[in-house]
Amino acid sequence: MKRFAILPLFASFCSFGSTFQCESEFEWLKSTFENNDAGFQYSVEKKGQDLYSAHNNAILARVQSAKNEAQCHTVLIDWLKFFRKGHVGLGLNTNGTVEATRESEVHDFDLSSFKQYLKSKRDETLEGIWQFSSYTVALKKEGNVHKAYILESTNPSWKAGQVKFILNDPADSNTAKVTFFMGDHSTRQIETITYLGNNEVVLGNSFIVMSREEPRQESSPEITRYVRLLSTKAPLFEKISENTVLVRIPSFDHALKKDIDAVIAEHLDTILKTENLIIDIRGNGGGSDASYASLLPILYTNPIRTVGVEYLSTELNNSRMLGFLQNPHFSEEEKQWAKDGYDILQQHIGSYINIGEDVTVATFDKVEPLPKSIGVLVDSSNGSTAEQFLLAAKQSKKVKLFGQTTAGVLDISNMYKTDSPSGVFTLHYSLTKSLRIPHMAVDGVGIQPDYYIDEELPLYEWTSFTRNVLETL
What is the reported pLDDT for 207? Predict the structure, then answer.
């Protein structure tokens, strides 16, 4: 495929002054992305060369005034936002500013006094002892904000007494609702908080699900189930009524394929004897297509057509295939696919090439009589492989989607990463473009549910709502 030339943006760079030069980082980012990202040309063609040139000029002016790594990082991320909202990113590999680590100091937190204070309180508030992921924190109100002091952590990067996140002043409309400090102590701003009764709180779109340990009140069964489903890191199975079973799959990560297959195999007899099945993939951001293979025979009713992708062949991009040969999660068959793919790609440097079929058609020996109805729970966090699974699932007469429109980050996919020469930044970009473009683009649109669940229905009631619909079909 013909690729248009990009005019040089830079004449030269000054190396005087600080050893860190944001201009050189921008030059590396721009050159690497333009020459290797499979969606770059598509984005510029859609938006126009004039708009792209104007964007470059505006970003360059900001780049030249960036004084440190953190400021440069912010500007370069804004440059990447021009292209798409998913399957692209830029990591900062240094905590080079005070701002990034300001809450990492260890505070002398008096847990005994805090517990006495909690016992003396009459009203139920957010203050208390909470647990999420690998952390136990004390959430304490200080002025108009709540700070979460770590009490216990299995993450060696975090110590007791450090502040893991801050619930900001709710009256401040100019500030995100939560300032969250990631594993590397960098900052992430979270815009939403969802309260589930008195004992559970969700930060972001299922980003963090917290449970109160002290002082705790009784939670409803529906809330308890929701928290269990949303907080699990591994697939699980649950019978939720006489006629309905549920499979929860939080991720299609290739490393979880064996776990997904094991859960399906263990409970397959029950699934195939039950009228209805709910597959809950809320919060599932994708992974590997192979990870959902064991679900397809269960939902199958007619041939499943999957449109292929074309790879942008470059030396950097093709090196990913060589990395697969060392991946312990890859089977020998998958490693042979990677080797054959590498050989084909190397013969077409600079071009888009499909190393598989334009369209594949999956068929199975039989249509299972049960389950008769299958509901898939979806939300705005579903992207990439999760959306690819939905495109396959929707071809079954048994399947209906319940929830809200997905993220719309599928057409440009198969991510790879590379570090800048300085090592300060890591670019995450994409290697493939779907052959569905332009006739059935998903990026920026998403996949809509068959049954839209509006905001009036609490998140923890989605499962019951879906079960009720399936059981009355």
Answer: 74
